[in-house]
Design brief:
Mean pLDDT: 88
Largest sheet: none
Radius of gyration: 23 Å
Structural class: mainly alpha
Shape: globular
Distance between the termini: 17 Å
Number of helices: 19
Strand content: under 5%
Number of strands: 0
Amino acid sequence: MFFNTIDFYIFITAVLLIIHLVTPQRFKLPLFLIINLVFYSFFGLKSFVILILLIITNYVFSLLIYRSTSSPRRIYAGFAVGLSVGILAFYKYSIPGLSFVTQGFSRQSLIVPVGLSFYTLSMLGYVADVYVMRIPAERNFIRFAAFSSFFPTIIMGPIGRSTILLEQLKQPLVFSRKLFLAGLKLVLLGLFQKLVIADRLGIYVDAVFSKPGNFSGLTLCIATVFFGFQLYGDFCSYSNIAIGIAKMFGIELPANFRQPYLSRSPIEFWRRWHISLSTWLMDYVFTPLQLIFRNSSVLKLFAPLMLTFLISGLWHGSTINFIIWGVLHGCYIFLYSFFRSRSKKHVVNYEYTGGRFRSVFSIVVTFLLVNFAWVFFRAATWADALTILRAISHMELSVFIGMDDSSILGYCSLAILFSIGIDLYQYKPNNRLVLLLQKYPPLQIGVYAFMIILILLLGALDGSQFIYVQF
């Protein structure tokens, strides 16, 4: 029951009516936990049992950590982290077809309990916060379980943080008309991004990447760029829908994407792309590693950075392609930081001054670097990635238009324009168009009505899964 299915919207409509219109305040949190668990139970008994196991163990060990001192705290923390990481590693890396020997973008990763990679990080972050005394351990089991199984985000994030989501669950779940309408707009925007942008681009991308040896370098370049926008539209759409649904319950979550393809540097890209993961890695991996290597003048940046992005690649999958993708981004940021530190101009001056040309040039270079790494992320095997890069280096100029539907390239181009338009609209929150729509609500209604029409006319309404479900 994913966000792009009719069943889900029947479910969420019933849930919202029950929570806001029927349930007394004191019963809302227990009922919300039940709703979370009912939602997750649709994904199978195995997934459900693992979720319950991790909720109970992390709840118990976090209390033991908080109440203990010195050595016992480290032992309890080690048990909690070891169990969570062990279960994640077992399911992600012990499945046949998913090992360092296997070279591929394997669909068998769907065998992994749905959402395991996301809610495991959420619980690990909570345990770490308790261990360093950033927050007290949550004594209310119902509240902790509701935080750990929060159904809008459990499948594909954004990764829940105890300092944000758990704190809000301590407050009454109160209906807010303003938040509800804002959430409804985000849900509609997310559906547009998924059905009109991501799934349309996916038709072309899947056709080309399934047999990359049959296509020209130019076609593979186009397909790689299309995949970058497909992945962005697909993942951002899920995040927007999840954040929008949370708003409908009166809970506000931070944005998970902020126009990443308008970034002026690799560092800025990771401040804008999958923000909940990048900030999680910064807080719980990179920063502790920096402390470990702080006395090494040579390794204090390189080692933490490369290890962090290696973990990021492994989090996505154990194949060599994901590892290369992670290492590439680590190298981008290290080289950028290295040359920046030796430049006479500080990064802020370099990135944000010097005229429009320099700004556009920085955006283009960053975009090209990111897309080069996407080749490894999307290619089915290491051999396919080399085939793609070899074909691009020769750059034959013939272009694959489509299979049965020759208009697919036109649909994809239109999808790219929609994606760029949405980002430019959101890039400056006080631009004239935003202010105009805020001033005249009927115009807003017209825009969203037009989006619904485009979804019905142009959307790929085949119920295709979200890409990041497999991670």
